[in-house]
Write a structure and sequence with these properties.
The complex is a heterodimer.
Chain A (H helix, E strand, L loop, with lengths): L20 H17 L4 E3 L13 H10 L6 E3 L7 H10 L3 E2 L7 E4 L24 E5 L9 E4 L7 E3 L6 H11 L7 E6 L2 E5 L4 E3 L1
Parallel strand pairs in A: 2-3, 2-4, 4-5, 5-8
Antiparallel strand pairs in A: 1-9, 6-7, 6-10, 8-9
Helix pairs in contact in A: 1-2
Chain B lengths: L1 H4 E2 L18 H16 L5 E2 L13 H10 L5 E6 L6 H14 L2 E3 L7 E5 L12 E5 L13 H9 L4 H14 L10 E3 L3 E3 L9 H4 L5 E6 L4 E5 L5 E3 L26 E5 L6 E5 L2 H9 L17 H13 L1
Parallel strand pairs in B: 3-4, 3-5, 5-6, 6-9
Antiparallel strand pairs in B: 1-4, 2-10, 7-8, 7-11, 9-10, 12-13
Classes of the chains: A alpha/beta, B alpha/beta.
């Protein structure tokens, strides 16, 4: 499970993480919590002082620094494996990197084309649906794409989002998984310093 | 009123502190934060978490304090109530705890607070978007009194098997002619998970429905966190012929004259005299300040709480 972690870290080129972990992870968490409580609303980490390595969005990096640790398996898509990003995440979070999608607490996806079917990730247990994988998908932009109308808990009537680079097939695949509520995956889409959260309860029309 | 509603305790600068910001260590906060996010993603479902030993006994709000510690930041304004009152021992000590460990401004004013921690009431003033309500929960499992085994209640939630709860309400009607539950009245969240709203009076249940605020529930001893995101349907269980009803009173608040708030009965002497007053102390004080008078206006119970004096004593203690 932890084969990736066998390579030693090259610390000479490692970029710093949070400069004030307690304060910064608190303010980041509030942005993530607001996004999760209000699906479809955009949280912006522009004020956060953090330079993640190339390959990870600032918002996705902030999420993982805030939430991931030695207790959470992290799955990285093939494009991120053995990269500077992987070293950075391993060093700053201490999260075990896994290549088995169904054991992942968090998954970070940089290119949706090379990602596995979402059904391969942990969908949770009937009695413990909270054990499912939270999937962070990095997209090019949270605006300018196809319009999606979201409804459900956390949304006052409805809200429209337009993330770029996600096909209708992607959303149909997600629909099929969350149709088996309480099973399902919780999605976080990030682009640059912004993110939007789409938990499994959100109903999407496109 | 303003001087007690805007209390700010100046603490020592952070570098002189001998504990982590907001008391809990970062690993614990991350674990609680992950549980909060899953709780918001599956509204009404009880997420197990590794509840920590806190510097006060179980039953005094250890679940609520851990939730608050995981979310609170220096820009927050914190309010803490116990049965609606800002000035009871438990509320005052928890409020001071966070003023000391998290550098937050505290208030009694519901409108100014960003985080409201509560033991068993939701304030009368409607909650606003951007506010977070943290409720302290003694027993998170609504089915526990009907089914003692956790393995069974887990399965009942998993299969949405809530018949037993309806039977229990039906037995209430057959025994008393009405649904007799008054606090911790079970609710259905987004038509999926049965949830205990914590022992708030059922008077407060309608405030949960489509609330613009984030509602977080923490049970420290039972090690469970659950949540209701804003704008979520919260339905109190009932029957077509026995619809859900809240408590009503024939009296008005003796101090402020309110006929819309939740009232507590206060025994005045051993001659059988008693009065009804608002349970929400800030709501009542604000009304009195705006000139509303009840039948016993001016009674000694209407005197302001002197928290400012208590703060002075506390600050002297910190200075030592």
């Amino acid at each position: 499970m932890n084969a990736a972690a066998a390579t030693p870290l090259d610390l000479s080129t490692l970029l710093p993480g949070f400069s004030e972990p307690a304060r910064q992870s608190q303010s980041c968490f509030r942005l993530i919590m607001d996004a999760t409580a209000l699906p479809g609303s955009i949280s912006d980490f522009a004020d956060l002082c953090l330079t993640p390595p190339q390959g990870i969005d600032k918002a996705a990096a902030a999420c993982l620094l805030t939430l991931a640790d030695a207790d959470t398996n992290l799955w990285l898509d093939p494009a991120l494996r053995n990269s500077e990003s992987e070293n950075w995440l391993r060093f700053h979070t201490g999260a075990p990197i896994t290549t088995e999608a169904n054991t992942a607490t968090f998954a970070l996806i940089s290119s949706i084309e090379s990602a596995p079917n979402f059904g391969e990730f942990n969908q949770g247990d009937a009695k413990y649906p909270d054990r499912s994988t939270t999937i962070l998908v990095m997209v090019s932009s949270l605006s300018g794409g196809t319009h999606l109308t979201l409804r459900g808990p956390g949304i006052n009537d409805e809200i429209v989002i337009a993330p770029r680079g996600l096909s209708e097939k992607f959303w149909r695949e997600r629909d099929e998984l969350v149709a088996h509520f309480q099973f399902g995956i919780d999605l976080i889409l990030s682009a640059g310093s912004q993110l939007v959260s789409i938990p499994r309860t959100t109903r999407i029309t496109y | 009123m303003n001087e007690i509603s805007e209390i700010k305790i100046d603490n020592k600068p952070p570098q002189e502190r001998y504990y982590t910001y907001a008391y809990l260590d970062e690993q614990t906060k991350r674990m609680i934060r992950r549980a909060i996010l899953k709780a918001l993603s599956i509204p009404g479902y009880q997420v197990p978490f590794g509840s920590r030993e806190m510097p006060l006994p179980y039953g005094w709000g250890t679940g609520g304090i851990q939730l608050t510690a995981a979310i609170i930041g220096p820009n927050d304004v914190y309010k803490c109530i116990d049965q609606g009152a800002d000035d009871t021992t438990n509320a005052v000590s928890i409020r001071r705890f966070f003023a000391t460990v998290a550098d937050v401004a505290t208030t009694e004013d519901t409108a100014k607070a960003t985080i409201i921690q509560s033991r068993h009431r939701i304030p009368e003033r409607p909650l606003q978007s951007g506010q977070i309500m943290v409720l302290q929960v003694p027993q998170p499992e609504p089915l526990r009194s009907l089914e003692p085994r956790e393995t069974e209640t887990r399965a009942m939630h998993a299969y949405e098997e809530y018949g037993l709860q309806y039977v229990s309400l039906y037995e209430n009607i057959s025994a008393y002619g009405r649904i007799a539950a008054t606090a911790g009245y079970p609710v259905m969240i987004d038509e999926r998970y049965l949830m205990s709203p914590s022992p708030i009076p059922k008077f407060d249940n309608p405030k949960l429905d489509m609330s613009p605020a984030i509602l977080l529930f923490g049970a420290g001893r039972e090690k469970r966190i659950y949540a209701v995101p804003p704008y979520t349907k919260v339905r109190s269980l009932d029957f077509e012929d026995y619809p859900f009803e809240t408590q009503t009173w024939d009296e008005v608040c003796a101090l402020c004259g309110s006929d819309t708030s939740y009232l507590d009965e206060v025994v005045l002497d051993d001659q059988g005299n008693h009065m009804f007053v608002c349970s929400d102390s800030h709501f009542c004080a604000e009304r009195r300040e705006n000139g509303h008078l009840g039948p016993l206006a001016g009674h000694s119970l209407a005197q302001k709480s002197d928290d400012s004096n208590a703060n002075r004593v506390l600050q002297e203690g910190i200075a030592k």
